[in-house]
Structure to design on (171 residues):
């Protein structure tokens, strides 16, 4: 299992306290409790109408994906899920950071970790972002993802999903 240790940026800035170590590692599954705690009531899932049955399906199907989690003192504060074998690349179906830890570099650290795993094996990463989720679109654009298509009204009638692609080097 590949494991990386670090600290969220904000905790590093506060040297008066012992900084909490952040660990990133792969995980065989995502639990229903983790999915519910991280996704329930949080956008984009709230606006897209995700509920108990969706979280149950995500947790159940996670054993067929590669999952990576960020933990602090054994508490999961972020996770991602992706699958190989999608259009000469991997499809990342999930990326979530606990709202209390957003904008502290956790999402970037997790994406660095996931992309490293993905680009060892394949040359593209694909993912979808809801058309209303402009913050996440900005986050991925800054990381080199480019919009390559619009999937009109894929999940709900009110919004589209934008397909993003990032190409690895040396493939
Ligand atoms: C999108 C998400 C994964 C980013 O994770 P994060 O830990 O907050 O991101 P980081 O702290 O590593 O941010 C790195 C940079 O990305 C950009 N960024 C991140 N979130 C942003 C937002 N909401 N709006 C604009 N830019 C954003 C900024 O440039 C940021 O740098 P800064 O904090 O110095 O301004 C996180 O906000 C999240 O879980 N959102 C809800 C779920 C989601 O949208 N998932 C992705 C699509 S399904």
């Amino acid at each position: 299992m590949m494991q990386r240790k670090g600290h969220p940026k904000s905790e590093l800035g506060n040297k008066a306290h012992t900084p909490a170590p952040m660990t990133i590692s792969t995980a065989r599954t995502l639990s229903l409790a983790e999915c519910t705690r991280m996704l329930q009531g949080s956008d984009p899932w709230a606006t897209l109408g995700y509920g108990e049955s969706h979280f149950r399906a995500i947790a159940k199907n996670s054993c067929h994906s590669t999952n990576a989690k960020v933990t602090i003192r054994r508490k999961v504060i972020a996770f991602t899920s992706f699958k190989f074998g999608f259009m000469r690349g991997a499809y990342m179906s999930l990326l979530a950071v606990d709202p209390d830890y957003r904008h502290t570099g956790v999402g970037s650290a997790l994406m660095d970790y996931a992309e490293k795993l993905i680009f060892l094996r394949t040359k593209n990463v694909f993912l979808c972002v809801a058309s209303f989720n402009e913050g996440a679109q900005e986050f991925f654009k800054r990381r080199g993802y480019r919009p390559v298509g619009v999937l009109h009204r894929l999940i709900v009638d009110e919004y589209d999903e934008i397909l993003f692609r990032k190409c690895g080097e040396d493939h």
User: Anything to note?
Assistant: Residues 35 and 58 are 8 Å apart (CA to CA). The chain is about 30% helix and 35% strand.
